[in-house]
Automatic annotation (TrEMBL):
This is Dynein heavy chain coiled coil stalk domain-containing protein. Residues 17-103 form the Dynein heavy chain coiled coil stalk domain. Keywords: Coiled coil. It comes from Cirrhinus mrigala. Residues 53-115 form a coiled coil. It comes from the Eukaryota. InterPro entries: DHC, Dynein_HC_stalk. The keyword Coiled coil applies.
Length: 122
C-alpha cells in the first residue's frame, strides 16, 4: 500500500533526511542493529538497500533520458533516411525515363536527318 510506495520510491527530501539522520550514523548498520534486534536487522538491511537503489536510479536517470533522446533521434534519422532513399529511387526512375525519352528523340532526329539527306539527294 501507501507505506510500501514510500519505501520503494522515497522522495528526495525523505531520502536526504534518512541519509542525514540514519546513514551518517556509523552505528546504523546491519550488524549493530541485528545484534540489538533480530527482527529489525533485516529491515535495516532492506532500508539501506532501498536507499542505495534510489540513489542509483537518481544517478542513472540522466543517462536514461539521454538514451531515450538518442533513440528518438535515431528513429527520426531512420525515417529521414528512408525518405531520402525513396527520393533517390524516384530520381533514378526519372533519370531512366529521361534516358529512354532521349534515346527515342535521338533516333527520331537520326531518322529526320536520313529523310533530309534522302530529299537533298533527289
Amino acid at each position: 500500500g501507501f507505506i510500501l510506495t514510500l519505501f520503494l520510491r522515497p522522495s528526495d527530501s525523505i531520502r536526504e533526511k534518512m541519509k542525514k539522520n540514519y546513514m551518517s550514523n556509523p552505528s546504523y548498520n546491519y550488524e549493530q542493529v541485528n545484534r540489538a534486534s533480530l527482527a529489525c536487522g533485516p529491515m535495516v538491511k532492506w532500508a539501506i538497500a532501498q536507499l542505495n537503489y534510489a540513489d542509483m536510479l537518481k544517478r542513472v536517470e540522466p543517462l536514461r533520458n539521454e538514451l531515450q533522446k538518442l533513440e528518438d533521434d535515431a528513429k527520426d534519422n531512420k525515417t529521414k533516411a528512408e525518405e531520402v532513399e525513396q527520393m533517390i529511387r524516384d530520381l533514378e526512375a526519372s533519370i531512366a525515363r529521361y534516358k529512354e525519352e532521349y534515346a527515342v528523340l535521338i533516333s527520331e532526329a537520326q531518322a529526320i536527318k536520313a529523310d533530309l539527306a534522302a530529299v537533298e539527294a533527289k
